[in-house]
């Protein structure tokens, strides 16, 4: 475990009781004792050190201390609207998305979605637990939220976000506006790096024409990542990785003086 995720804001000098699964993992699995230090990430994305003071057999008492400061976060917040795949594939996808730097995961129902779990139920609880474990394991810079499933028609772009919908090479001819996919490259979209990027990924059968028209009408823009056929969950990881590497290496691929 790279860090402990604490689901609330912390302050220096605060005493914290670590119980339940946190206590079991730290005390029984990792065999930590009084005097050991645990790095922690709180609900506001701040980093702390937890100095373990005592173990009474049911909880660890820790003192919150200032942690090592991470470098300035220059990477935009990434939200993924993902059509829910069949079976348990979404569990593995959530874990991988955290590792790929996604900050907010929003499962969606589309016209071609087969799996339709309850909006608040055991599967949603499991996804959130998987995300929490992945944040702790990967050392992610921010807590990762998993929202309840919603209909595709309900989603809206984040204010000020670069909002992109992954789609095949051909678009319906009656889409509003001009959407030349050949010019809609990630390099073009990331000429200026926004604070937020929204990605929308459809089901195995893709979006219907009506769904695309609805998304583009709300301000989402098309993104084509090449001619290869990807599974729905593979497309999400492909897009997240592509966005991340272009942002991280932007100073190398953009001519000097042009990046902002």
Concise description?
This protein has 260 residues and is an alpha/beta fold.
Can you characterise this structure?
This protein has seven helices and twelve strands. It is an alpha/beta fold. The chain folds into two domains: 63 residues, Hypothetical PUA domain-like, domain 1 (Ribosomal Protein L25, Chain P, Beta Barrel), CATH 2.40.240; 177 residues, SPOUT methyltransferase, trefoil knot domain (Alpha/beta knot). Helix 2 links the parallel strand 6 and strand 7. Helix 2 runs parallel beside helix 3 and helix 2 runs parallel beside helix 6. The longest helix has 17 residues. The two termini are 36 Å apart. The mean pLDDT is 83.
CATH topology of the largest domain: Alpha/beta knot
What is the CATH architecture annotation of the largest domain?
A: 3-Layer(aba) Sandwich
The termini sit apart by 36 Å
Number of separate domains = 2
Strand content: 15-25%
Mean pLDDT, all residues: 83
Rg is: 21 Å
Unreliable parts = none
- CATH superfamily heading of the largest domain: SPOUT methyltransferase, trefoil knot domain
Shape: globular
* H/E element order: EEHEEEEHEHEEEHEHEHH
Q: Percent helix among the residues?
A: 25-40%
Number of extended strands: 12
How many helices?
7
Describe this protein with a few key phrases:
Ribosomal Protein L25, Chain P, single chain, 7 helices, seven-stranded parallel β-sheet, 260 residues, Alpha/beta knot, 2 domains, alpha/beta, five-stranded mixed β-sheet, globular, 28% helix
Question: Layout of SSEs?
Answer:
Blueprint (H helix, E strand, L loop, with lengths): L3 E2 L9 E4 L1 H10 L7 E5 L5 E9 L4 E7 L10 E7 L5 H11 L4 E6 L12 H17 L6 E2 L3 E2 L10 E5 L19 H4 L6 E6 L7 H9 L3 E3 L8 H17 L1 H4 L7
Parallel strand pairs: 1-3, 6-7, 6-11, 7-8, 7-9, 10-11, 10-12
Antiparallel strand pairs: 2-5, 3-4, 4-5
Helix pairs in contact: 2-3, 2-6
